[in-house]
Amino acid sequence: MITRRVTRALDPAVQSLIELVQSADIAFTNLEVLPNDFRGYPAEESGGTHLAARSWVLDDLLDFGFTLFACANNHSLDYGVEGLLATIEELEAREVAFAGVGRNLDLARAPAYLEHRGGIAALLACASTFARGQQAGAQRPELPGRPGLNPLRVETTYEVTPQQLEALREVAEALGLEQQRLERIQLGFAFPPDDPDVFPFLEARFRPAERPAVRTAPNRRDLDAILAWTRDARRRADLVIVSVHAHEQAATKEEPAEFLITFAHAAIDAGADVVVGHGPHLLRGMELYRGKPIFYSLGNFIAQNELVELLPADAYERFRADPAMTPSQVFLQRNENERKSFPADRRYWQTVVPICEFEGSELRRIELVPVSLGFGQPVYRRGQPRLADGEEAAEILERFAALSRPFGTAIRIEGGRGLVEIDHSA
């Protein structure tokens, strides 16, 4: 979420991190901002903050050393289709390898390829968190497709006890909602659920079970399409990276939702070498599945969303802000003078940069570099990534190791870095 230049920072810890990224053969990032010079029309429903920036932030990220960009996330359509197309134009003008958005669904689903002297890398990117209608539409012989992002829709089912389900049925019938649902089916605008045990109620799905639970699964059509492109990329590249932007959670924000684990495993089964997640703005654990790394969320890397230059009227209305306020005042009202939200929680300002080393298609080593984004610093300095050291480095690595332990991942901490223990005999 970059809105200002980072590479010009004088902080030696920032410069050391830049040198680290530049030393990599391939460097991936999630581009969670629209570098479109504020072109387009602000959408009524944004990803939280209308995230647009000057197009030169792309040049700064390229100078930082990034070479592969995932663009599918809940901010991709913050400025509508026009804003997305302007972003695509800026990426194409710089010949940037990007994936996850396109002028139609096929282009949004397709991998991006990056040629390097060490081999060819492919990137696929998708998002499960987005507003309705922001997904790209398929092309037809007689009509163009809709520009948008590569969707990984989620099917959520709420399991409740039979007694609870019966209570929901009574409420639906008493309010006339069940009759309206049946009328929509009769008119051809809706369909009954495929599972006869499922009861639709207020656009949610409920199913009887012994105890309440939330179950999530990837949409079958989206999953099959993404896996088909993953298998295609496997035949065309030495290294295949699958990126997924997912805010959805399990019991806590640090635990990935059920569908995300299903998707990540399926992507590796289809040929992915790395699955990298982002979305909740904080770290989730990592898993080694069939010898391939899955990062369920790498949190924030550059977090300058509170420095976005311009906010549309919809943002002022959403945050109940006086139209006479400046953008800084709007953010201060939103976070109660930094007493809540992102500024008040240090987890949003700490991350790790994984350095994955491959020999051919075999993962040989993962080094975890702890990174601080300056929790507690003034807003104009906060959000710039720098190498963490001392107690903060240990805190970051220990938390990431604890989050990864439930996945059976062991991380050894040595000299301010984390080393993932890999079983090369597997």
TrEMBL record:
Residues 1-305 form the Capsule synthesis protein CapA domain. InterPro entries: Capsule_synth_CapA (IPR019079), CW_Biosynth-Accessory (IPR052169), Metallo-depent_PP-like (IPR029052). Pfam families: PGA_cap. Transmembrane segments: none annotated. Belongs to the CapA family. This is CapA family protein. It comes from Thermalbibacter longus.
